[in-house]
Amino acid sequence: MDGLNNYNPVNETVARKKSWPVLKIIISLLFVLAIFAAGVSIGRGDKINLKGLSAPKSTPTALDYSSVDQVYNLLKSNFDGSLDTSKLLDGLKFGLVQAANDPYTEYLNAADAKELDNQLSGTFTGIGAELGTDENNNIVVVAPLAGYPAEKAGLQPKDIIGAIDGQSTAELTVSAAVRKIRGPADSQVKLTIIRGNDKPFDVTITRTQITLPSVESKVDGSIGYIKISQFTAETVSIAAKTATNFKQQGVKAVVLDLRNNPGGYLSGAIDVSSLWLEKGKVVVSERRGSQVLSTDYASGNATLLGLPTAIVINGGSASASEIIAGALHDNSVATIVGEKSFGKGSVQQIERLLGGAALKVTIARWFTPKGANIDKQGITPDIQVTQTDDDKKAGRDPQKDKAYEILRSKIQ
Questions:
Q1: pTM
Q2: Known catalytic membership, residue 290
Q3: I need a labelling partner for 218 at 20 to 30 A (CA). Which of 84, 164, 327, 362 fits?
Q4: Domains of the chain from N-terminus onward
Q5: 227, 344, 400, 402: which is the annotated catalytic residue?
Q6: Catalytic: which of 28, 273, 319, 346?
Q7: Is 344 a catalytic residue?
Q8: Quick one: CA dihedral 1, 162, 317, 98, positive or negative?
Q9: 156 within 8 A of 148, measured Cβ to Cβ
Q10: Which of 46, 112, 330, 375 is labelled catalytic?
Q11: Which residues of 119-144 are buried (b: 16+ CB within 10 A; e: fewer)?
Q12: Do residues 203 and 190 lie in contact, with contact meaning Cβ atoms separated by under 8 Å?
């Protein structure tokens, strides 16, 4: 959450008499090193196996690697230093995938693939913040995780991270930014934050071990409250047990808090939605352009079916949490309260590669049951309520309060 080595090659070329002009050699060397330097971003991904997909007609069935071999031969002949074959190959893969120009399509080496698995399991070391990019490719905070250093330091969704320990993030990928922000527990990192039109300011944050309880719950009178922080491998089983407990305690309405939930496993979003939806109801569809590739339906474990529900979201609600909000809203089983969600609605498929590496590739976009595109659009609340910095400092939560108010009026 909070990935990849940030290469910064410097080239000094000595002119020699070759069959190729010196300028072409320099350009070729810079080109290949630029490819090697390309990084990838770390976003949220889910393994969606969609069969029968084919490449667009404009995409060649195979690449001509002769120019790559030519550049490699020049590099091998002219580079003053040793070359690591494994790093060169990783660099080619990074650059190839980076050229797709999609922030969520990435090649992960073995170390970064393991890091992604740790994120999805809910355990990692860092500041406790999901990072992404905005429309201008700035590194931004998607969601600070509740109770962890990033939130305690005051970071907010959509905050731009302008620098890390004094180094500008202008040329960094999300993965490179993540790698720089992470570090040993109890060490510190200084972030330069840009928030709206305010003057940039520095925040020093102490890193810690992050272990997320993905589900928290309680019962207030006749209203059950369930907060889902992210969708890990354990989220569905915990949420299902919570729903059963709610029914046993005679709960008459439910508040589902998805604020600052950056997402996780798609299957988790489908199964959690199924706690409210009858079997066969549409949860989400995946589309590529105008083509519907796949549609996911409720599984039928509708433990909370018929209970008035209010969902609370904000700008840090992304990916799987947006799917649930859209599904329950479009199926008319929930009222949405809070602020517009982040708008991360692209579908990633993870393919495992030799040596522990992985390819995470965007294969489609998510659409709500009524056909609304989640990607870059987000989910707009039925009732918009903001929670200001002053509210947080004073311990006030007008968004949650409004959700309870709506439900009390319905069950009375």
A1: 0.67
A2: no
A3: 327
A4: 22-110 (no CATH), 112-210 (2.30.42.10), 213-411 (3.90.226.10)
A5: 344
A6: 319
A7: yes
A8: negative
A9: no
A10: 330
A11: bbebebbbbbbbbbbeeeebbbbbbb
A12: yes
